[in-house]
Input
Amino acid sequence: MSDIDNLMRAIDPAPHAPEQGPGARELREAIMATRTRPYRTAWRRLPWWAGAVGAVAATTTTVVFLGQAVPAPPAPPRATTGVTSLSGASVLLAAAAKARTAPEGTYWRLKQQYTMRLAMPFGKKGSTYRLEISRLSETWVAKDGRSWTGFKELAARPLDTGAWRRDGSPTKWEIGGDGYVISASPGEGRLTRSRGGQRFYWSAMPLTLEKIEALPADPEVLKRRAAEAIRVDKDFVGSVEHGLPRTLATLLYELPASPQVRAAAYQALATLPLVRVEGPATDSRGRPGVAVTFPIQEGQPTKGRLVIDPETSKVLAFDVIGMPMKGDRSEVVLESGWTDTRPSPPSVD
Amino acid sequence: MTHRDRFEAVYDAYYPAIHQYAARRAGSPDDTTDVISETFLTAWRRIGDVPEGEEALLWLYGVARRVLANQRRGASRRAVLAERLRGELAADRPVGPVELDHVRAAFDELPERDREVLALACWEGLTSERIARVVGCTAIAARTRLHRARKRLAAALERRASLTTVRREA
Output
């Protein structure tokens, strides 16, 4: 092999093969939710709400869209014993106390709803509107390693109904000019059994279900293990301290950690100077909680923002803030934890 | 095997390679996302055309290459399909500082034809036979292109080295 080839390899801009993260898995499902061939048909003209609202009425479920006026339920009393200003550590420690009693079950389940507003305008010149789309994605993992992925495209909705009516009240929107279509009716929920089981990553460290369950329940030991997991990442730059909050936060909702480990993760977060408890906040579905922010990487403007419910220790939402298009997307956690419910295609409930 | 099973198998097997291919060539996380999603969307729509075994990877490289050459086409669709991935990549860590800036600069000043074959050979690790299949030429032509590209990169590096020496002496 020539010296030139060695130099070329040394300047490889992406030397490490990435693993499929949630974004990559969701892309796979989103692609398979489209048709395999471009097609052109006359669309049935249905009001855009016929699918979405009809389903809601029938099942008394509520699809809460970003930006809709949602009356937030009254906030439950906080566990901070009459203290009005929220002390950061006490909020996290209250959550830690609740985390210890989280239920166990047969399957680990993570269900998230992703909502975004498309930047591109639709409609007639001078009277355009934007669309909001949402999708559900779900992961189920059994103790024996079998795993399933669920995906469901939710109904898209126009953000300006006046402009939408002037556009002729369409219920399908084609974009890209080759048959890719967004629909005002929800797609079918699909559940796919994953071949080869589920692989978990804690930062860049691959972990089996057993190893995640066996993580230390002592906050200081857990922090040291988190630092080790970060150092496995060959691309990581900056201080490990900046990587700790996010790495610990993934144990709260993204990974099947035991109740004791989740409690330890909350306790560990309470000790980190970079973690800020911002105060009461609601997620995009209007659920009340407390916002916690932290840097993701040294020298980067982006921050991670968790909305947690200290009463139940559940993570309600996780967002990366400080990026362009901020406020136009939201990711909420609908389910995260062990359950005895059997895997089934995602539905709105 | 249904179309779905086949697509899932292809996606899972080659996602890392296509992600890397895109990240190496695209100018931004947005463009990387664009190339990944357009490439696999094409694979899904033409799943019957995707060859078996490792040939599938060369086929995907060929698609990704055309997407790169015509990048703006899918921008609006990408926003819908791959928004979450886009967010992940935008929040991702930048590549650390490299002590080899002069090599990077010498590489950047080569014509696109040279950069393409050098990158396929050294980053994707393809033989000239395989490069030929990705870029659509004969194996002999690919070998010749690769040989010339190596020589031109060596010359560009030497030129930079002598420039630096002259500057130091001045």
About this structure: Residues 139-169 of chain B form the longest helix (31 residues). Chain B has a mean pLDDT of 85. The radius of gyration of chain B is 18 Å. The CA atoms of residues 106 and 159 of chain B lie 9 Å apart.
